[in-house]
Design a protein that fits this description.
438 residues, alpha+beta, 3-hydroxy-3-methylglutaryl-coenzyme A Reductase, Chain A, domain 2, Alpha-Beta Plaits, 4 domains, 4-stranded antiparallel sheet, 16 helices, 48% helix, globular
């Protein structure tokens, strides 16, 4: 490929043309990029301006997991995902637990963190920080930044200092705790942290003229172990039966499967991926940052020093309990939740929840996704249900007609679904219509 000069300054049409010239099938690239858009000019401009060098709109299915019972309230939960089994699994598990009392969810805390990292140079080694004095200075000189958030009950709620010789000599760190209410608060936090860096530097240079102070960086942390939510379900083991499998046996196998994910990293990673299938889908639907939440959850999974399952399961006094605790920093005001029409619609479908309520909804869907996966793994196997839902995708890869899809749904009701079996079905259907039963 050749270098495309001044790509950013080109019009979208010119960008597509230049890019297509560097591809194998220029006409296909141009046709596809021009097709994936929307007709409404206002929404089109809004969505295209959310990112840089936008050539098309990448569309994913927006679906609903209906009738999710959380704290005795029913929710119809919007989910954005391309994996066919995710919404079906969450809906199936939610229906199972709605008949057993539903999900219980509790927010444990909503504190978010950020840090300012400094390098202090004092050749006489006489530098010491008057923490009370500098904290007063910080709170006073950031008051204009925090005023609006403080009126809503948030703001800076804690400042701590750490001075040590690693990762380098003269390292000084300022840990700042924030409450951002219904906003995710990333821009608010970063603005405060950058101001704290400047205020601290000025204060040190004024009060310690023999000391040099360098701000290395000021940035929020996506590790927020004090911003967590717990969701759980419980029922007598006799009520855990499913598709002909005995409830007591199912409950014991389920607990053992989760124990494996607590001790085997190979299983833990896939186990947690199943949780994030549901979590990410709701986070995307509501316009929140799934990348930040993924990072936070996987860090939380390693909080004991080794990576392990984010969920727990146990049996006590004949009661099966399945529980999850997740770090979730989400917002329901500002950012993409305000700009993206579908994100606004998703929140409206949920009843315009507070950030804390949305945390509980997301954790509950993560729990349901995990429950559905482990239940399938410990009974029928994961492929039976997954491949049944994947059948449509396989058929579409062969450009199946509506009639062929209907025939396939009947044909594969009691048969194994695989790429090969679908291929053979399509070939047989098109040669003999319908396929020979056998």
């Amino acid at each position: 490929m050749k270098k495309i000069e001044s790509f950013r300054s080109l019009s979208k049409e010119e960008q597509i043309e230049k890019l297509a010239q560097e591809t194998i099938d220029a006409s296909l690239v141009k046709e596809t990029l021009n097709r994936f858009t929307i007709a409404d000019p206002a929404y089109k401009e809004l969505l295209e301006n959310l990112s840089e060098n936008t050539l098309a709109l990448h569309m994913l299915p927006f679906g609903i997991a209906p009738n999710v019972m959380i704290n005795n309230t029913l929710y119809h939960v919007p989910m954005v995902t391309e994996e066919s089994s995710v919404i079906a699994a969450a809906a199936s598990a939610s229906s199972f637990w709605a008949a057993r009392g539903g999900i219980t969810a509790t927010v444990n805390g909503t504190t978010k963190q950020g840090q300012v990292h400094f390098r202090i140079t004092n050749h006489l080694d006489t530098f010491s920080l008057d923490q009370e004095a500098i904290n007063r200075e910080i709170l006073s000189k950031t008051s204009h930044l925090t005023e609006s958030m403080r009126k809503r009950g948030g703001g800076i709620i804690g400042i701590k200092w750490v001075k040590k010789e690693v990762p380098f000599k003269g390292y000084l760190k300022c840990d700042v705790d924030f409450e951002t209410m219904d906003a995710m608060g990333a821009n608010f936090i970063n603005s405060c942290l950058e101001a704290i860096g400047r205020i601290t530097t000025e204060w040190i240079l004024t009060n310690h003229p023999d000391t040099e102070c360098e701000v290395i960086m000021a940035i929020l942390s996506n590790h927020y172990p004090d911003c967590t939510v717990t969701a759980s379900v419980s029922a007598p083991v006799e009520m855990m039966g499913w598709q002909g499998h005995d409830g007591r046996i199912m409950a014991k196998r389920f607990v053992n499967a989760v124990l494996i994910a607590k001790h085997e990293i190979q299983r833990a990673v896939t186990h947690n991926k199943g949780i994030m299938n549901g979590v990410d889908a709701v986070v995307l639907a509501t316009g929140n940052d799934f990348r930040a939440i993924e990072a936070a959850c996987h860090a939380f999974a390693a909080k004991e020093g080794g990576y392990q399952s984010l969920s727990d399961a146990w049996i006590k006094d004949n009661i099966f309990t399945f529980s999850i605790t997740l770090p979730l920093a989400v917002g329901t005001v500002g950012g993409l939740t305000k700009l993206h029409p579908l994100a606004k619609t998703a929140l409206d479908i949920l009843g315009n929840p507070s950030a804390s309520e949305l945390m509980m909804i997301i954790a509950s869907i993560g729990l349901m996704s995990n429950f559905a996966a482990v239940r399938a793994l410990t009974s029928t196997g994961i492929q039976k249900g997954h491949m049944k839902l994947h059948l449509t995708n396989l058929l579409m890869s062969y450009n199946a007609t509506k009639e062929e899809m209907k025939l396939a749904a009947d044909w594969f009701k009691d048969k194994e679904i695989s790429s090969l079996s679908v291929k053979e079905f399509i070939e047989q259907t098109r040669n003999s219509n319908p396929p020979i039963n056998g």
